[in-house]
User: What shape does this take?
Amino acid sequence: MNSEISFSMKEGSIFEILEGYQNGTTISKDKALDLLESNDILSLMNVAACLKTRFKKDIITYSRKIFINITNLCRDFCSYCTYRKNPFESSSIMMHPTEVLNLAKIGQIYHCTEALIVAGERPEDRYPEAKRWLRQLGYSSLVEYVIDISEKIVKETGLLPHSNLGNITEEEMKLLKTYNVSLGVMLESSSEKLLEKGMPHEFAPSKNPIKRIEVIKNAGRMKIPLTTGLLIGIGETKEELINDLFLLKSINNEYGNIQEIILQNFHPKKNTRMQDCPSPSYDYFLKIVSIARIIMPDMNIQIPPNLSPRTFSSFIDAGINDWGGISPVTIDHVNPEFLWPKIKELKCITESKHHRLRGRLPVYPEFIDKPDFISSDLRNYVENFIDLDGLVKEEYLVEFR
Ligand code: SF4
Assistant: This one.
C-alpha cells in the first residue's frame, strides 16, 4: 500500500524505525512507541506529511457550522470540565425548540451546512428540573427531544445535524440516524485507570471505556458515520495513548464507520480539579499527531485550531487534513475561552502551507455513497450541497468573516 511513498529525510533513527513500513508493512505498537520517544520531530512530521499528501492530497477541510448548545446539564462530573452546569447556574434548563430553530435559521443565513447539537450526558437522570422540562414538551428523554428537533432543523433549514449526546443506545442511534448525517462520541481514553479515585473520570461513569467502546462499535454495526477522538493529557500513559490509536484503527478496520479522529489537547481550566495539571507540550502533541497519521495513513485526522491558537498551522506539517467545525456565528461552548479563527484567516494560513481549504459536510465524502450510511430522508439535502468530490460547492461557501 505504501510502496510509492518516498520519504525525503536523512537516514537515522526514524528511518530505521519506519524501514519496514515504507515497504508496505504496518507499523507495530512497539515501533510507534519508539517514535513517540524519538527527538527527531522534523523527520517524523516529514513522514506524516508525505502520507497525508499521498492519501488526502493538498486539501484541508472544515465544516461550517452552527453550535446548538441544547443544555449544559449533565449527569456526570469530569474533573477537567467547565461545560457542565448545575440547574441553579444555568439561565435556562434547555434550549427551547423555537430557540434552536431560530439559531439554525441564522446558520442558514451564514451559509453553514452543519447543525452541531451538543448536550450534557442524560441530564434527566440526575435533575428533576430537566425531566420536568422535557415532560412538559412531551419527551421522556433528552435524546428523544434531539431526535425530534433534528428532523425540524433539516426540514425547516436544510442544515445537516450532527449530534454529540454521549453514550446512547442502539435504538436511540437508529432513530437519530434518520435526521443526523453522522454522530459524535469521543473515546477520550480507554485507560480504566482514569476511573479510579482522584482521577478525571472518577465521577463520570459514562466515560467508562468499556461502555464508550461499545457505543463506537454499535455505531459501526448500525452503519453510522462516527466522529470520535482522544483527549490527550488527562493522565493516560504514552503506552495507553498508542494503544488507543491502534484500538480506533482496529474498530475502523472491522466496521469502517469512523469518519474522523479528533486529537484534542487538554487545557487546564480554572476552578476545576485539574486546574494545575499541565497541557501536553507542543512538541509532544506534534509527535502524537504525526504518529496518528503514520498508524492510520488514510484516516481523516483533525485538530481543533482554536485549541492551539498560535501554532495550529504547524499541524498541517504533521499530517492533519481537517480543522473540524468552525462557526462564523456561535462560540465553542465547550471551550468558550478559545475563539475559533476567522474562516478567512484559516484560509490564508492553510494556503500559506500550500494547501487548499475546502468546506465539507458533517459527513465526509467517502461515506456519502457508501451503501446504507446515509438515511434516504437526508439524501436530497446532502446532494444539494455537494460537488462531484462530495465537498461543499465552493460557490455556496461565501465568506462572511
Ligand atoms: S460528560 Fe461531558 S459534559 Fe458531562 S462532565 Fe464530562 S465532559 Fe462535561
